[in-house]
Design a protein that fits this description.
Length: 301
């Protein structure tokens, strides 16, 4: 494991004492319930796909033409096959937000707002169907989505932030479908990289079975991935009751450039909404890798 040495010192914690852990677990559970109630209220707002921003249009009409800016309503000044304007040199790569199992883009309302306030202009959310039964199929959809974003924004690379199952879908895309040519940094929040033993009764769903330790898909991700260009930053929480064991949310692969960040004091649902995690995600996306240490873990909450 590597340490994110650029995290603010005030956010770092020492090892938890058992007595402190007990009270922390109570507070974390209460916070999970509050977040769950709030998310239930927001959930309907994220059911529909987000609106795609229209690409900038150039006025390509000759001087004096009646199809210029003064033309009547509904007359386009940009041919349909004209590519999007190139990205500005100082523009950050687009960030793609990918939700977890039986969820939608509404889970990223607070994280998206935080990124927008700190200068990210291209923020995209992808809703995949709750009826999706195969992580590989969802990864292929992500592939098409990323290609469309790059074509529309003029960027050659994107960053991805995935919560839970969303991180596993993104990892499969990067590691097995050649997505490392497009994804600069993949940030995962409570993702079962090594498979999880949680929710045994939900195992009837095919995609849940794929998230189990020892599944064909998890074993596929253990295969060699030489030359993978994407940086992996995985946030895992010692109070995450969906990841069993909790260390399964760490990336452990000899061919991957991976940093595992320990989060203390919060559970699974809080990872995409906690302000300390949002701050650490921003710093991870801004880092070029030179601020990453060598060994250990870092805490952010």
């Amino acid at each position: 494991m590597k340490v994110l040495s650029f995290l603010p010192p005030l956010l770092r914690r020492a090892c938890l004492r058992p007595a402190w852990l007990s009270s922390t677990l109570v507070r974390a559970t209460a916070l999970e319930l509050v977040i769950l109630a709030g998310h239930v209220l927001l959930y309907p707002s994220g059911l529909t796909p987000e609106r795609r921003p229209s690409p900038p249009q150039r006025d390509t009409s000759p001087p004096g033409s009646d199809t210029g800016p003064e033309a009547g309503p509904g007359v386009s000044t940009r041919p349909a096959d004209t590519p999007a304007l190139p990205a500005r040199a100082d523009d950050r790569p687009p960030v793609v937000l990918l939700h977890g199992f039986i969820d939608n883009r509404s889970v990223f309302v607070l994280l998206r707002r935080s990124l927008a306030r700190h200068g990210w202009h291209h923020l995209e959310s992808l809703n995949y169907s709750p009826l999706t039964c195969d992580i590989r199929t969802a990864a292929e959809l992500l592939d098409r989505h990323v290609e469309e974003i790059c074509a529309r924004t003029g960027h050659h690379e994107v960053d991805i932030v995935g919560h839970s199952l969303g991180g596993l879908i993104a990892r499969y895309y990067v590691q097995r479908l050649g997505g490392d040519r497009r994804v600069r940094t993949l940030v995962t929040l409570g993702t079962p990289h090594g498979g999880t033993a949680a929710a045994p009764l939900a195992g009837a769903h095919p995609i849940v079975r794929q998230m189990r330790s020892g599944s064909g898909l998890i074993e596929e991700l253990r295969r060699p991935a030489p030359g993978c260009r994407t940086r992996f930053i995985s946030f895992w929480s010692e109070l995450d009751r969906v990841m069993l064991p909790v260390e399964t949310a760490c990336v452990d692969h000899p061919d991957l450039d991976a940093v595992n960040v320990r989060v203390t004091g919060i559970g699974h649902l809080a990872l995409p909404v906690h302000p300390a995690v949002a701050s650490a995600v921003r710093q991870a996306l801004e880092s070029d890798g030179t601020a990453i240490g060598t060994t250990g873990t870092a805490s952010v909450a």
